[in-house]
Design goal:
Length: 251
């Protein structure tokens, strides 16, 4: 099914998915895989309501974006552990691509939705490595290291900067699959909170908050290798997260 056919079908079936009383439905159209900007263009052209009031997005409140982080590609994902220095830097170069993807898809969306009534949902993101040796490859089990935590932190920084368009971002799985916050062992009953879990916990302060802009009142601003992500949820004080933009491999 191409994007034009899908947009027509999505618009048709949206009429059957209605809110009931205070239970409001958020309709999310299946958007692009990675850098398929043509799909986003066709979808926005077919779904955005030109005659609706400025506050109403039309039949869909959001479209999705789907992108994972690999060592090289889907066919060459790389190992969760035992990676080399070259693997380390190649992985973060790929993770940084999320910034470009969101910016460019947002630019396409701006053509048809300049008031940003339609949100962008990053429906699946995270690190995807080769399956853990000795496990069923279809179960997508993998270990979780400091590298995964930094990948998660980098993504949070990107989502934070694009909060005016990104309304939701979903780490693909919760337990035992891909970049999971929790790992369990049914044989021993053990449960482990992964490094990714702790990054999620450290970002709770940004939940439902409002992003704040940062302005430097000094002659020498911090180095470009560090980013700040401040937000505020009234009446609480601002919550600020510092994120490294350079990731030297630990020895």
């Amino acid at each position: 099914m191409n994007a034009q056919v899908y947009a027509a079908q999505a618009r048709r079936y949206a009429t059957f998915v209605r809110s009931h009383g205070s239970n409001e439905i958020m309709r999310i159209a299946a958007g692009a895989n990675v850098d398929d900007y043509a799909w986003t263009d066709t979808l926005m052209r077919g779904l955005v309501c030109d005659t609706c009031p400025r506050s109403e997005p039309g039949p869909y409140q959001a479209i999705s974006l789907h992108s994972y982080t690999f060592r090289d590609s889907f066919e060459a994902k790389g190992q969760a552990r035992g990676f080399s220095t070259a693997d380390w830097y190649a992985t973060f170069a790929n993770a940084w691509r999320m910034e470009e993807l969101i910016a460019r898809h947002s630019t396409v969306m701006d053509r048809y939705d300049p008031f940003r009534k339609v949100g962008l949902v990053v429906d699946e993101w995270g690190a995807w490595w080769d399956a853990k040796p000795g496990t069923n490859p279809h179960f997508l089990q993998q270990d979780n290291t400091l590298r995964d935590a930094l990948i998660a932190s980098l993504h949070f920084d990107i989502f934070h900067r694009h909060a005016e368009r990104v309304v939701m971002a979903n780490l693909a799985q919760t337990i035992n699959v891909l970049q999971a916050p929790i790992l369990t062992d049914p044989a021993t009953g053990t449960m482990v909170l992964t490094p990714t879990y702790h990054v999620l916990a450290m970002n709770v302060g940004h939940h439902d908050a409002t992003r704040l802009d940062v302005r430097w009142w000094m002659s020498h601003p911090p180095t470009p290798t560090t980013a700040l992500a401040p937000s505020r949820w009234c009446p609480s004080p601002p919550h600020v997260r510092a994120i490294p933009r350079s990731f030297p491999q630990p020895t």
